[in-house]
Structure formats: C-alpha cells, structure tokens
Amino acid sequence: MKASRIAATGAVAASAVLVLSGPAFAHVSVQPEGAAAKGGYATVNFKVPNERDKASTTKLEVNFPADHPLASVMPQAVDGWTVKVTKSKLEKPLELHGEKINEAVTKVTWTADGKGIQPGYFQKFPLSIGALPENTDELVFKAIQTYSNKEVVRWIETPTKGEEEPETPAPVLALSAAEDDHHGSASSASDDSAEADDAKAAANTSTTEAAASDSSDTTARVLGIVGIVVGVAGVAFGVLAGRRRTDAA
Fold this sequence. Notes:
Layout lengths: L1 H20 L7 E4 L9 E8 L7 E7 L8 E4 L5 E16 L2 E14 L9 E9 L7 E3 L1 E6 L4 E4 L16 E3 L5 H4 L1 H64 L1
Antiparallel strand pairs: 1-2, 2-7, 3-6, 3-9, 4-7, 5-6, 8-11, 9-10
C-alpha cells in the first residue's frame, strides 16, 4: 500500500516537473550559424515553435536593441512568409566602412501568407546582421508571437544570470570574442610568419645551390687535373716510343 502511494506521488511530481519545465524548451530563441564575433558579421536564426494545439503562428515581430543598433540587417526569403524591415533614425550616427549611417533597423516582421507554423512544428527565420557591437557580450531581441486565434505572446523578459529563467524570456544572442583577423593582429602575425618561412626557404635554396656549385667546381677541378695527368702520361709514352724506334734503327 505504502509502495503504491509512493509510486503515485512520484508520478505526480514527475508530471509537475515536466509541465513546469515545458515552456523553457519552447520559447522563441536566436542562435548564430557558426560564430557571432564582436565587431564582425553573422547569420542568425530566430527559432519559433508553435506551443498551441488548435492555433497556428501567423506573425513574428523581432525588435532590435536600441542601445546597440545594427547598421546592416538582411533577411533571407522564407517560403510562405512575407518579411518587412523597419528602420529608424539614430540619435548618434554609426560609422560603417568609413561612411556615416544615420539610421538602423529597429524591427523585422514576418507575416504568414498561408497557414503559418502549424501545431507540432517550428520555423526558422534567418537574418544576416552586423557589424556586431564590441562593447557588450550579448544582444537582447524582444519578440512578439501572434497566433491565428488572435492570441499574442510577448517574449520580452530579459533573463538575468544566476536567477531562474522568466516565463516569457526574450531571445538572447551571445557574442564571442572578436576574431583576430578583424583587428589585424592575427593577419599580421600570419604574414610575418609566412615571410619568415619564405626567407628561410630562400636561404635553404641558396645554401643548396652554393653547395651544388662548390661540388661542381670541385668535380671540374678533379677532372681537369686527371686530364692533365693523362696528357702528360701520353706525351711521356710518345717520347719513350720515339726513343725506342731510334735505338732500334
């Protein structure tokens, strides 16, 4: 009897854990394809799951952080969806490739042309973004998900490290350390290394050629001396032969 009660209590507890942990695995999120390095550009995917059994997701709005504006935002076409990029003027202009940028993207909106994201499915929405800021470790994007039954879910709560995840967390993009070639240090080091290797190879080639040249000179000298010896021997042989003929006569 006690065993049955314990088993029943365990089952209820396990069910409660699954129910409570479910939303944590089904919120709107953002992940980069590869690295999202500070100061560089990245392709990111906003992953949107459908959490409803009887409604489809028909709209997604992603708001960009105003404190870290991005000058370049380019969406990739997604079948069955229309995308709209909204820009706003900046209080403080940005500089990109030597040019001043007076406006930046503040929102990207995807609207379904058909059924949208149906129950039991998810959809990825790709964006190419940059240049990523160098003075922060993450970017927080507040997203709004709209269902076909007019229900709206606002994924706008900013997660805090060391605390429990909020019920409707905003998508957070973690930024990695700036790539070395972005600042030129790694590139310069690589160039220096390459130049050193080339110099070493040139030195080895010169040494090899010098050795080959010395070897050739030595061989030539030896052959020359041998030729002289052979010539002297031939002359001596000829003289001796002449004397023998004279003595015989």
